[in-house]
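Final report, closing paragraph on structural work. Over the funding period we assembled a curated collection of sequence-structure pairs, and we close with a single example.
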Amino acid sequence: MPPEGFPRELLQAAASERLNYFRSYTIAHPHLKAVSDALWRAIQEPAGSALILVIGPTGVGKTTLRLRMEQELRQRFLTAGAAEPGRLPVVGFEAVAPDAGNFSWKEYYRRALRALEEPLIDDKIDYATPQRFRNSAGEFTVPHRVGNPELRQAMEQALRHRRPAAVLIDEAQHVTKMASGRRLADQLDCLKSLASLTGCVHVLIGTYELLPCRNLSAQLSRRSIDLHFPRYQAHNPHDVSAFQRVIFSFQRHLPLPQEPELGCDWEYYYTQSIGCVGILKDWFTRALAEALAQEAPTLTRADLARHAWSLDQCEKMAQDALDGEAVLAEQPEAMERLRTLLGVAATPSVDTGSPRNRPPLRRAQGRRRVGVRRPRRDAVGRGGTN
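Its predicted structure, as stored:
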């Protein structure tokens, strides 16, 4: 069934209201739904994993995924009817890019505590070491400057009491920004220990810049789950069909007097968006804003071309996406390398079920006791003949 369009009474509304309608409109397209379902299952049963990494290209819809998951977790929490007024079903926020090139854990803790609705963030005291904050009379005093240890302690306590199902961190690739000489594993170990101590799984949502965080150590590999949020591929017929339906859904929900005809140029829209729904929607939103400002009856390809990203920008985004996809793709020889590393024999190419095809057994060559000679045939008869 074709998707229903926007409410027709919206044509009488102001241009800002019509633009906000399209900006807030989201499509549950196949890739978004598949990753959302996989993330939900991983949150429900992490099976010992402390971190979940959701990785995808820029503009694929990762922020939409986070907002969708937050809404679903809140809805399920309310439906369950749990009488826990102090509990938060989910905590979500964005990791801020550092100003000076180094990721700020202090700012990270502050934003997390605000998302946890924690009061008096600037007045936290680490009661584990109370002697640091007593005056000469033995009374507690608030430190002049709250540091990382106090904020970290406050976050741990808030997560234990609030007990959210997950902590969703958007733009998590900013965690990898650090000073030279500091190990990237230290950044991830900090999040892993925070998740383990509080029993709250952390979901890191970011671009392919998160790829180096996947296998920094054996411990991180075991305690993390990788989820790939892919773009739509032009060589896949199912992806092409899904992307065409996305274009048609956007076309139906553009609040204009005359519905534009965009489906016939799907290859152009795919190329300029590299198959990412988020890029496509941002592109259409900018074109819609101009059309509403000029009171245009519809959108044409020429209107959209004025707001498309340049070819250099599209090529850069496409190259980054292809590089990330190549890293995530498992090579055929990876299994043989793993078997060789573990000392497992290569997969036989012939049937070894019958005795005829079984390899000959080799006897174990053990050391003989002293005085026991090696077995050999003795010469018998005359002339030393056998």
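The domain at 46-228 is CATH 3.40.50 (Rossmann fold). The chain has two domains: 11-25+233-328, 46-228. We thank the funder for supporting this effort.
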